[in-house]
Amino acid sequence: MLENLTERLTKALRNLRGVGKLSEENMAEALAEVRQALLGADVHFKVVREFIERVKAESVGKEVLQSVTPGQQLVKIIHDELVNLLGGGATELSPIRPLKILMVGLHGSGKTTTSAKLAKLLKKRGMNPCLVACDVYRPAAIDQLEALGRQIDVKVYSDRGENSAVKIAKRFERQASEDGYDAVIFDTAGRLQIDEGLIKEIIDIKDLVNPAEVFLVADSALGQEAVNVAKHFNEAVSITGVVLTKLDGDARGGAALSIKTVSGAPIKFAGVGEKLDDLDVFHPDRMAQRILGMGDVVSLVEKAQEVVDEKEAMRMAEKLRKAEFDLEDFLSQMRQIKKLGSMGSLLKMIPGLSGVQIGEREEKKMKQTEAIILSMTPQERQNPNILNARRRLRIAKGSGTEVRDVNTLIKQFEQMRKIMKMMKGDGARKMMRNFPKM
Ligand SMILES: Nc1nc2c(ncn2[C@@H]2O[C@H](COP(=O)(O)OP(=O)(O)O)[C@@H](O)[C@H]2O)c(=O)[nH]1
Ligand SMILES: [Mg+2]
């Protein structure tokens, strides 16, 4: 799948060596290759266009990290955007019990097979699933589901005398919960293409059963057609996820890359073979790795990024130690902390403060502090001593806070600086003991 992407990129990125900054010009060739590879893999052209734009926005003008090449950095950006395109993080099954899953999709997409695969997976997770045969149009469909059920030792409810799928669904849903099943998977009929009758039947079943999950089973070999089907089904019955089947075949990958953007529903599982074990939880990052095939480059850049964060934290710690710390540093440090999502780097370097956690309240406070500092002029940030009453009032107004808040912040900052100054001497260790009280 998308095999030539790695090759095309490697070639194009060779020319990016030795460039200090990524720019529209020096990335042009590489991005043209990416565009060609994506279009060649049958990714929707609008998705391709947006993808290229996002990669550009993420990379133009960005300083290239030390110890990696610009090409490597671009690979990482492309990788991250691929992950986004594929839906971000992996999504899990609804926690609602009994877990009712309605399987919908075109004829031959793999609904019946996937129903059995899912039942097997749920069983492995310690659940007690059953299957309901709602494909009433072909007796062979019921035979197929029953045969699969026997293979995995899962109960299959069916009624060959009933010709209303809706009635079957309702009756066996009740039966299943009386029999103590905590997951009920409804296998439904499909058509060769979407038609009103099919949609109506699914809507009726859905309204009656109220399933926690509505899975569209889509054949990845259909490429863009699979994406259109997903969009259509989603508009009609609000699917909660897509199971993309036959990814083991020679599908070009375009469906996987477009389906989230076009249909709005995330891919939850991937069918990767005819056997009942051939169902994978869909992981966007792993898929992106497979598509791009440059896992070593991606982790290299991630490591370089960590080094930069560490270095910056170290520089700040040094400033702190020398008491050269001004409000400008305070602000940039706070942003760093916000970026890291925790007090991480800096606090770990200050004895006594490691292990401090940031909660919601602190976060709000940090936002307020940030707003206050942002309302100061650069001179005020470098030299808080000039902050008289008039300036403080202006800053409070500018940041949507009270003068009281501005005063508190400045007082805290002064205190911190005072402590830092004292720490310069050999009283450092003694002062550290007082630090947590701040
Ligand atoms: N290779 C491969 N074949 C699959 C996969 N999922 C389903 N199939 C095959 O596709 C065909 C149609 O599947 P079926 O479950 O009957 O589709 P339904 O009409 O939607 O119920 C069967 O021959 C399955 O074995 C898959 O992930 N990989
Ligand atoms: Mg079927």
TrEMBL record:
Pfam families (alphabetical): SRP54, SRP54_N, SRP_SPB
Domain SRP54-type proteins GTP-binding stretches: 266-279
The enzyme's E.C. designation: 3.6.5.4
Subcellular location: Cytoplasm
InterPro entries: AAA+_ATPase (IPR003593), P-loop_NTPase (IPR027417), Signal_recog_part_SRP54_M_sf (IPR036891), Signal_recog_particl_SRP54_hlx (IPR013822), Signal_recog_particle_SRP54_M (IPR004125), SRP (IPR004780), SRP54 (IPR022941), SRP54_GTPase_dom (IPR000897)
Keyword terms: Cytoplasm, GTP-binding, Hydrolase, Nucleotide-binding, Ribonucleoprotein, RNA-binding, Signal recognition particle
Superkingdom to which the source organism belongs: Bacteria
Broad EC category: hydrolase
Positions with a binding annotation for GTP: 105-112, 187-191, 245-248
Catalytic activity of the protein: GTP + H2O = GDP + phosphate + H(+)
Amino-acid biosynthesis as UniProt keyword: no
Subunit composition and interactions: Part of the signal recognition particle protein translocation system, which is composed of SRP and FtsY.
Domain notes: Composed of three domains: the N-terminal N domain, which is responsible for interactions with the ribosome, the central G domain, which binds GTP, and the C-terminal M domain, which binds the RNA and the signal sequence of the RNC.
Family according to the record: Belongs to the GTP-binding SRP family. SRP54 subfamily.
Known function: Involved in targeting and insertion of nascent membrane proteins into the cytoplasmic membrane. Binds to the hydrophobic signal sequence of the ribosome-nascent chain (RNC) as it emerges from the ribosomes. The SRP-RNC complex is then targeted to the cytoplasmic membrane where it interacts with the SRP receptor FtsY.
NCBIfam families per the UniProt record, alphabetical: ffh
Stated name of the protein: Signal recognition particle protein
Source organism phylogeny: Bacteria, Pseudomonadati, Verrucomicrobiota, Opitutia, Opitutales
